[in-house]
Amino acid sequence: MKLKAMRGQDIEHFRHLQPEGWPDIAPEFEYYVNMPFCHPVKVVFKKRIVGIGAGISLGNTAWLAHIIVDKGFRRRGIGSFIVTQLLHHLTEAGCQTVSLIATELGYPVYKKAGFLAQTEYIFFARQAPCQSFPPSGNIVPLTAGDFAAVFSLDKQVAGEERKRLLGAALDNGYVYKKNGEVLGYYLPALGEGPVVATDGEAGTALMALKYAAAPKGVLPAANREGMSFFKENGFGEIMRAVRMYRGREFPWQPQNIFSRIGGNLG
């Protein structure tokens, strides 16, 4: 059994690893392969890819993502092996904190590797028609003049330097402005379409824009205003997952994340 760096041509050879109920993993690994701050890997046994995963470095912080093991090869330590190797790589790159969002299956593996539970993310799905909302006059298309404010707001809320993630998804984004100040943003082109705001009014207004069409959403349990929005607008809770971290805990504002980027980045 060997762990190797993943290449673009590998992606067609691990379709069998696609977890049921997850979004298509192929585009995610195409992204990882092409981004210099990502480190996707594969575990090969007798020329068959039996495990995959990725480390995403954001500087002082990092994420583990898409740790997946072939059903026929579980309970052989492959998941732990991938986690250990990725942690070594990220530590060598200078990352002081590594985060992840754990499925029920992966939680024991991460706990054994030294990860600690931090909070829960709650998953919602539309179960009744969502009422229509009049568009907020405070929501406007994101322009180049807003970039610096969006980056600053995001760093304040996420506690991480995510400019390299947001930068490629600013086109067709939206910001909520009040008296000329950016209080929130929504980026439809990034992952699941993150909504981040420092103000509850701004966050729920951007949620109204997003969930006029989107049937599912995920946010941290600390965001009470966001959860109230879901419950009052035809959405019901369907599951929960645990956000975990290893290393130095850093300050962030989960109550101001109204929609996450994805399971790979919080």
| Integer count of domains | 2
Percentage of residues assigned to helices:
10-25%
Report, as a whole number of angstroms, the end-to-end distance: 31 Å
Q: What is the string of SSEs from the N terminus onward?
A: EHEEEHEHEEHHEEEHEHEE
Give the overall shape, derived from the CA principal axes: globular
Low-confidence stretches: none
Just name the CATH architecture of the largest domain: 3-Layer(aba) Sandwich
Give an overview of the whole structure.
The model has no long low-confidence stretch (mean pLDDT 96). Strands 1-2-3-4-5-12-6-11 form an eight-stranded mixed β-sheet, sandwiched between helices. It has a five-stranded antiparallel β-sheet with strand order 7-8-9-10-13. The protein is built from seven helices and 13 strands. It has two domains: 94 residues, 3-Layer(aba) Sandwich (Aminopeptidase); 136 residues, Aminopeptidase. With 266 residues, the protein is α+β, with helices and mostly antiparallel strands.
List the main descriptive attributes of the protein structure presented here.
2 domains; globular; alpha+beta; Aminopeptidase; 13 strands; 266 residues; single chain; five-stranded antiparallel beta sheet; eight-stranded mixed beta sheet
